[in-house]
What does this fold into?
Amino acid sequence: MNPDMSLPTASIDEAQRLIFKTSQDQDLAWELGVFYLKVPDWLDLEEARHFGRDILDSESPYRNIPQYGELEGFIALENNQQTKLALRRHRWDDHYPAEIAQFGRQLDDIGRVVIREVFRKSGIPEYLWTDASGGYSSGQGTAFLNFVHYDTSQSDLGLRPHTDYGFVTILDATSPGLQIELCGQFHNVPVLDAHLVINFGEALNFITQHSNRSVTAIVHRVTSQAASNPVRHGIVYFANPDLNGALKQFNAQGREVGSSSVADLFAKLEKNLTTYG
Ligand SMILES: [Fe+2]
It folds into this structure.
């Protein structure tokens, strides 16, 4: 039995700032690389959850959305319990209903609020944020909005241990299963009603590495879903840099101290991932 983890909680205030109860909570969130976010009043989560659940219906037209490469479209993976409908931002209006495309743009807003708070704390001067993040902090970059299901008819682990590659991941999961690794041990992240789980990814760790305050890309996994809880639904949003773009590392004095093409950084991470194979 894995111990439960009590994570810090944040909310978004009227000025679109990310607010923690105490500065110790924020420090802990940055150190762990994960925290709960109270669902903002303006986010219609229920509608998006319904949309996600309806995709499980074998007659759902959304199961016919074609695959675009390995990462987008309706995808049933053979090596784990996951099926998903995954689309990058520029395809949302083509394939998602208008209210779901709009929901995605609201998650864009949340992603930007989070990344801007990370920059603020990093001490990197604001005029460099767009350049450092390959455009994401000012509304460019890319994003995925995915609707995910874990099915017990496959016996494999839900999702193997990994770090996310992008900047920020926003997760809405209505059943347990998410675990984070701390000091070599996995801890359950319990579902907290009316809260999303936010975690930082490798690209955000990379661009804050030489600043006053870096963030951790947390190792996490999803456990195999038990038969007593047959299908785990999730909505996942990934805030990512453009694959053909670049990321820059600045220090708090505004000096560029490193950079990488996104492709090179991701290729390096892919190589490291084999340690979990
Ligand atoms: Fe992940």
Observations:
- The helical segments are 23-32, 45-54, 89-95, 98-122, 129-132, 202-208, 262-273.
- The two ends are 23 Å apart (CA to CA).
- The domain at 9-271 is CATH 2.60.120.330 (Jelly Rolls).
